[in-house]
Amino acid sequence: MRSRITGLILACLLGLAGCGGGDDGNGFDDSFTVQLQSDARFDGDIERVSANDFVVTQGMSNTVQNVLVGIDPAGGTEFRAFLDFPLGGPFGVPADAIIDTAFLEIRIDDLQPRTGRLPVRVELVAFQPPTLIETDYDRILQPPLASIVVFPDIGSADIGTFVPIDVTPLMREAQRRRLVDFQVRILEDLGPAIPVLLSINDSNGPDRIARAPMLTVAYF
Length: 220
Prior knowledge:
There is one protein chain. By secondary structure, the protein is mainly beta. The chain has one domain. It is globular. The protein has helices spanning 10-13, 168-176, 208-211; strands spanning 19-21, 31-37, 44-50, 53-58, 66-71, 78-86, 99-112, 120-125, 146-149, 162-166, 181-188, 197-201, 214-219. A hairpin with a 2-residue loop joins strand 3 and strand 4. It contains three helices and 13 strands, in the order H-E-E-E-E-E-E-E-E-E-E-H-E-E-H-E.
């Protein structure tokens, strides 16, 4: 699949309501689906420019419309991206919900070099208050609570498309821990360094609903 998850009513798409699905045999829906957009104020990335020097970029603006993942083939610095999805509120995921499935969709805007392929890991983290600091980059100082590896690697065929990532184990762990936000760190998968840089769309303009990261959660 390389497009937005479909089949939900418009209210779900806007993140304004849960959508019932399934039937318990008594005429009542027993499952719901919500779609949540990431919070552009808290999305960002951290660039490691040397062993002890980092550049933190947080919050989308007129000049910042993407978050970056991987190793810059030109400068050799590494980027790790962070996305924040608030779970609370009347149209979020209830604290007592049982998670059925969860998918994260990201739009790939660019890949440098365009012929490259990037192995990607997605990790559940918890940075509260949701302000990024340098230590959030470090997997020891900010240990992952759960993680998955994206398969297959992201390549040139994904540019300009949405890549759906099954993050069900991460969402279940977030729910188990009663986290108020679903926060993920996206990074080049561990192993030999690969000089490929991935750009993920995080527009805060009028087309945000059609381009920005989205989390689709089905729950009971």
